[in-house]
Each structure stands twice: as structure tokens, then as C-alpha cells.
Amino acid sequence: MTSGAGVSLVDLHRAYGGVPALDGLDLRVEPGELVSLLGPSGCGKTTALRVLGGLETVDRGQVLVGGKDVTGVPAHRRDMGMVFQAYSLFPNLTARDNVGFGLRLRKVSGAEERRRAGELLELVGLGPQAAKYPHQMSGGQQQRVALARALAIQPRVLLLDEPLSALDAQVRVQLREEIRRIQTELAITTLFVTHDQEEALAISDRVGVMSRGRLEQLAAPAEVYERPATPFVAEFIGVTNSFRGTVADGAVLLATGARLPAAVVASRPAGSAVRVLVRPGDLQVRADGAGALGGVVQTQSFLGPVTRLGVALPEGDVVRVDVPSERARTLPSGTPVELAVDPGAAMLAADA
């Protein structure tokens, strides 16, 4: 039905009241690729999307679509479909007429409009609801109509700004899978902005993690999670334990006297204050007394195949550890445990 165009955001700068929202942002989205932008509030991800859509201007930089500079082109001439958190459907129009609205503005004939609107509603699974009005539909159905409306004009780029955040958890998962299916089927270049890490990791070809108007990392979901490029990405993506201490003989010496093996501190001089990050899955509960950290199981959170233990250390900190759920049954609250760390999986934080 459509095909995507490559997108390049080149050295984008945008400030509001002297506060930078974009600070030299560079981003390339390949034709037909789905890239998610992820980051804390105020990191610039929504500003980047709005600049690409022509809804915001830049102080400096270029926006290229299909190799052509569209930086000064108004939004209605950029050939982009947009879906936002608010459904923004016309309450007095049926689902079919909402989907066909953009086609009418483009002077598409009535018969062709109805055909394409019906086709798009079938694509998003709402063929039988074509004659319903928004108030007769659920939130998830309304957002599907909004998606179909964005696709009806056969855009070269699809922009999705927190489109699922107003929906409940089950509907959100179902609709994100539908978005991915449709995006793949149409091979449409898509920029997806979300605050939901699980969402971004689940449906993206690549994930861009932003901080202070710049990209910290842009990579495949597994790489972002397993090999974070910066301490910020390591702390922002997933759950991470943090240990403060000083460097001593290639390890981190904690206040309790425990030694935390961490290959990343090898280049730091002895006595340096450091903060080391370790994911829950990179800690192991040892039964042979060979653990680096001793503690007591305080809590258990069942997560399906794994259970996350909260292990209280002597100084009062609680470390999160993932163990197979079958083994967790043998580690009830109050059980003394020792934890071993994979030295190669430890990461250094930016600050000590």
C-alpha cells in the first residue's frame, strides 16, 4: 500500500526560553524501519518528533526525508501520518468518515475514499465497526481508528507520540503488537516516541535513548539492554543495582569490607571512589560460600520464569537479584545468602 522514506535529523538545535530541548541531535531512520525514542521527561524526544512532523521549528539543523531537505516545509506538505495520545477523532463522524477525512481534503473521489477507508479499517481489525461513532467505541478501538486515519493518506513517514499511554495494560500490549504488524506489512518508516521501556524494546528495530536533547545510544533493543553504551543508558534501561566503594586491586571495596569484582575498574587508580552498576540477572545466589556479598532474603516478586529477590545487605541496602522461580521456592524470606557478581557484566556509573 505504501513504502517508507529514509529520514535524517542533522545537528538539530531547539531551545525554549534559553533551555535546550534539542542539543545537536543527529538521527537516521532507514526506509521501512521502526525506531523508538525513549528517555525521561524533558529529554527532547517529543520535540524531535514534532520537528520531523513540521509542528515545531528548529534554531539550527536540517530535516531530510528521502534525501530532500524539508526543514522549511509546512506540516501539511510533508506527507506524514501522525497519531498522538489523544485520539482527536471527530465525534460527529463515523469511524469510516473519520478515516476518510484526510482523503476528502485531498479531493479523492467519494467511491475511492470509501474503498480506502474500508480497507484501512479492515487492516486495523475494525471492519465491522465502520458505521460506529467514537462514543460507541472503546479507547483501544478509537486509537485504531486514529491509526487507520493516519495511514489512509499513504504517508511516507508515520509519527507516533505516546499513542498507547492512555490505554489499560492489556489493550496497550495488544495494540502495540498490531502497530508493529501493520508497520511491517506496509514497510512504512516510523518514529515512535514512548516513555515505556518495555514497549520500546518489544516492537522496535532500533531504540534511541535520549538525555538532555542528545542521543546517548541508538541500537537494536537487545544491544541497548545487554551492552549499554553509557552509564546513563545502563541506569535508565531496566533495573540496576548500584554499589559505591573505592578501587582496590581491580575490585570495588565496599564500606562493609566486602570486595565486589568488577573488570571495569581495572583502569582506575587505587583509592578512586566509584559507583558500579550490576543488573539483577548478573548476580548469582551461591551455596558454596564463594559469594562476594552476604545478605538476607527480604522480599520475593514473582515475574514468571524468574523471581526477583530483595536481599538486604548488612549496611541496610537492598540488592535485587533474579533467580529461577523454581529455586526461589527454596529461598524464603529470612534465608541468609551469598551473592556472586559476574565481573564482566558490571558497569561504571558516570558519578561516584
Q: Show unreliable segments.
A: none
How much of the sequence is in beta strands?
25-35%
- End-to-end separation in angstroms reads 53 Å
| CATH superfamily caption of the largest domain | P-loop containing nucleotide triphosphate hydrolases
SS content category: alpha+beta
What does the main sheet amount to? 6 strands, mixed
Instruction: Quickly give the CATH architecture of the largest domain.
Output: 3-Layer(aba) Sandwich
**CATH class term of the largest domain:** Alpha Beta
CATH fold-type name of the largest domain:
Rossmann fold
Radius of gyration, Cα only, in angstroms? 25 Å
Strand order of the largest sheet: 6-7-8-3-9-10
Order of helices and strands: EEEHEEEHHHEHEHEEHHEEEEEEEEHEE
Helix content: 25-40%
Domains, number: 2
List how many beta strands DSSP finds.
20
Shape: elongated
| Number of helical regions | 9
Overall pLDDT metric: 90
Overview of this structure, please?
There is one protein chain. The chain is of the alpha+beta class and 352 residues long. It has 2 domains: 7-235, 3-Layer(aba) Sandwich (Rossmann fold); 239-348, Nucleic acid-binding proteins (OB fold (Dihydrolipoamide Acetyltransferase, E2P)), CATH 2.40.50. 25% of the residues lie in helices and 34% in strands. The protein has a 6-stranded mixed β-sheet, with helices on both faces. Helix 2 crosses helix 3, helix 2 packs parallel to helix 4 and helix 3 packs across helix 4 (139-152). The longest helix has 18 residues, at 169-186. The N and C termini lie far apart (53 Å). The model has no long low-confidence stretch (mean pLDDT 90).
